[in-house]
Structures are given as structure tokens and as C-alpha cells.
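Q: Protein A?
A:
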Amino acid sequence: MKDHLADLSGNPEIRSPGKVRQESAMICCLLVVDVIMNEGKMVDASFTIAPRQRNTREENKLIKEGKGDELWNDKPNKKRHKDIDARWTKKNNETFYGYKNHAKADTKSKFIDTYKVTDASVHDSQPLEDLLIINPKRRKVGFLRR
């Protein structure tokens, strides 16, 4: 699950160079035909709910310490069903367990420019720096690939 989420988050160490070239070519084409207007950007986050885990207190303690991979080695079928990367959070007196998708999108086309996946307990302001790409040529926050 963790490797899959790292790939979704846009980690360049996980993504293949061919995939990055394809995405860049597609984005350049959309810019040329003015689908992406770059008139403004919006940043938002949403929850992705994961199945709630029924762990003991000792298991939860080990998971929080980062030793979750050591659990359930004698029961591989049970281990496959456990999500040790998801976290709990509370928002507006509602409890959520899972992940949070952070995205930066163009306000006109609604095309997602950049995104990052974190566990649900991460505050919305934490991945903001990763979402706001600074163009070194123009010293301006915005879209890099023009």
C-alpha cells in the first residue's frame, strides 16, 4: 500500500522516466490549446476512508512506533488485510481513518496540477510547500512546465 501511495504522490524516485515524459507532453499539449489557462490556482484536501482496523492496544503501539511490519508475520492472510499506514483524525467532531489527498488545481479548467497523498492526521498546511512549485526563471509560484 505504501509504495502505491508513494507513486500516486508524485515521488520522482518511484515514478518511471517514461511516465514523467508522457505526463509532461500531455500537459504541454493542453497548455498549447489553452485548456489550462493558468488564471488561478486552488489548493484543497479531501479524505479517503480506509477500512477501520481492529487492533489491540499493543499492536497499535507498535504501529505508531513504526514497527508495524513486524506484526502478524505468522499470519500472512491477516497481515494482507491490515493497513498500517492509515491514521486517525478528527474534523468538525467527526472521526476519520485513512488518508488525505492534497491537490492543486487550475481554477478555470479544474485540471489537477500537483497532488500529494498523506495519512489523514497530517494538517492541510503541511504539504502546501510541496504543492506550490516555484518557477526559478520567473520567481513566481505557479506552473513549472511552460
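Q: Protein B?
A:
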Amino acid sequence: MSSSLPPGPRHLLPTLLHWAHDPFGFLRLTAQRYGASFTLPRMAGMRWVVFSRPEHLREILTAPDDVLCAAAAAESGRWLFGNGSLFMLSGAAYLAEYRRVQGCMRGAVTGQINDVIQRVVDEESATWQRGVPMALLPTLQRMTTRVVVHALLGRCPDDVAARLVPAIIDFANSLGVTMFVPALQRGVLVDPVLRRRARVHELLRRELRRRGDAVDPADILDDLRGGDEQALLENVTSLLVAGQETLGKALAWAMYLVLAHPHVHLRLKEELRDAATPGDVVDLPYLAQVCQEALRRASVVPFVPRRALRPFRVGDYEIPVGDTVVGCLYLTHHLPDVFRDPDGFHPERFGDRTFGPFEFLPFGGGVRRCVGWHLALHEMKVLLASLLRAADYRLVERATPRARLGGVTVAPSTGTRVEITAIHPRRRPAIRHCPHHHGGHHAA
């Protein structure tokens, strides 16, 4: 057994430039050169040791928080998310808040959210023009933000939601990878980001003032109230941004992959014909497989980092205190001995076999699995089905888009460019944000 760290690229600048230009391309090339485990050059005193084998991810993601700590690995983002954010908690405080938030999130999966999704798609698609090329990503970000706002703040008035949605998008779009580099967290680089965050906080604060002491236990924002208001604002803002960032970009990749593979598109449309309502689609097997394969093919969050607070062994390697151990989901999802033809798009693979929890883990794993994964997957299914029913599309991409890094998430560099060839409008009433829509959401 070896105690030295795995080899990897030695020079920081070319590593950073390649990673910033094409994250997926960088990961593929580095794995080809060095194998499934590699060490990245030290930056600002920090060193990342990357692993992608399922057995290594199991060791990393099941390690105790006082040995490998996710909050410590995300410390450089504390100034941005705040101490009240779930992402910044650890130990018993994290587990208690995770269970509380998870119960609320599961309760958001109701028939009402299906209707909200359909209405959002109807309203957005009504503004599209046939024959005019467009990037889907901005529209998808707007759609997913509206859905996430409704899921978390169901009884806020329409005018509040109308101001909050663009504020969340503006804040999320201001996040760059430089925001997580301590040396760059100063002055003119961070002031615009802080102003955008303050705008979101102010809108949420006004909504809390409007609600007063009245608490509706069927509303997630109300359900999370209690204790320090600033911590609540930080936590809800983190959940709103994380939800819209990941879901919008996952849908952009899914739309590209479906449209780039006509046989998948055709089979999916045939399956959707048998679903009478948005709620009917969530149990369709091929739709579920398409969503899973899209999440495998393009890992929107390609890394799950943990900071070593004690010496820790991963496989044959001894990780020193202070180093960051990284599970690379993108590379795990492209291991050829786990996924046949990993660069292909084969949704049926998820009908042929069941993959282990550390082989396919688009929402992470262990106790820090994405707290809203159940709601996110539900929303992805209904949104993708509604989008494919709303219009006919033609890809105008000249080549497969490379990955583009934004903060800690990855989107198609072109935003998935399409031409609308036909629009299929439906007569539906305008979306209403005020009625509460959750129910019985304290079940685990």
C-alpha cells in the first residue's frame, strides 16, 4: 500500500484555464492521463485529491462529519451563503436542519405543483416565435425559478413572486467560480454579488413582515420560521438558488440530449401520448429513464468535496489533514466498466439494471445527499414532459456543446439553441401564487 497521493497535473495556470474553458473535457483528459484518481495543483494553500471509483466514493461519502467535513470544504463560500445556510452547517446541527427541511420538501410534491409547472410552461411558451432560433437556458431558468419559488413560498402574492423571480436569477447568474477563491473575495469583485443577495433578502423580509404572526403549517417558508430571522433568510435563499440553478441547467442538458437523439425523442413522445394530465407523467418508466440518463451524462454538479479534519485513507492513499477529498460524480458516471458506452445516450440502461448508490448518484450520497432531490426529480419529469408537449423543436447546434462553468454548476455552453417549428397552446388560467398547496408534509 502506498501513502503518497495519486499523480496529477503539476502546473496550476493551464489546469485552471482548461477547467474554466471546458470542465467536462478537462476531467476526461485528466482521467485518461492519470487514471480514476488524481491530485490537482495546490491553489491558495488548498489541494484537491479527486476520486471517482464507486468504492472510493462510498468511503468518502459515508465518513463521519468530524473526519471529512463538507461544511469545511465549502468554507470559502460562507461569506456568500451565511452561517444560517444548511450548506454551512455540520454535525448534529446539520442533521437536525436537514431532516426538518427534507420533510418540508417532500410535502411540496403534490398535484398542485404539477398544475403550477404546466401553467408556467404554457405562459412561457406562449411568448415563443416559430422559426426564430433561441437559447432555451434563459427560459428554463425563468421557468424553474418560478416553480421553485412556488414550491417554497406557495402563499406569497403574485406581485411578490414577480419581483422575487428575477432577483433570484440575477443573484444566481452573478456567481462565478472566482467567488469561491478567498483571494478574490474583496472590493469590486464581490460588491455586486452582495447587492444582489441583499435584494433577495429584502424581498423575503418584506414577505415575512406581510405574513406577520400568522403561520400556515402547509407552507414551507412558514414551516421553516422560528428563531433567528437572518438565518432563515440565508437558508431560504440558499435553497431557492440551489433549486433553480441545478434544475434549469439539468433541463437544458436533457432537452439537448433528447433532441440530439431522434429515436429517444420519438419513443418519449409516444409514451407521453398516453398521459392525460401532468400528474400522470411522473410514473412513466421511459421518461424516468430519460431523466436519469440525462443526469448521468451531464453532471450539473460534477464534484462533492470534503475537507479532511483528520488523516483519512481512501483506497491506497493517505489523505493529510487540510486537504480536500473530492468525489467526482461526472467521472463516476462515465466509468466504462459500470456504464456501457458511457459517452452515448442510452436511457434504456436504467431499465436493464439497477445501479448502486455509489455508481449513480446525481444528487450526491450519504447524509449530505441533496435535501430536495425528491422534489427536484419530480419537477424535472413534469417540466421535461410539459416542454416536449408544448412545442416541436429543431436543434440548431452545429456540434455538441461543451460544458460551461457557472459557480459550482455546469451548463451547455450554447444554452441549448433550438428553433421552434410548431407551438401547441393550451387554454389554461394564469398561474396564481397565493393559494397554499402543500399538504401533510411532515412525513419522512
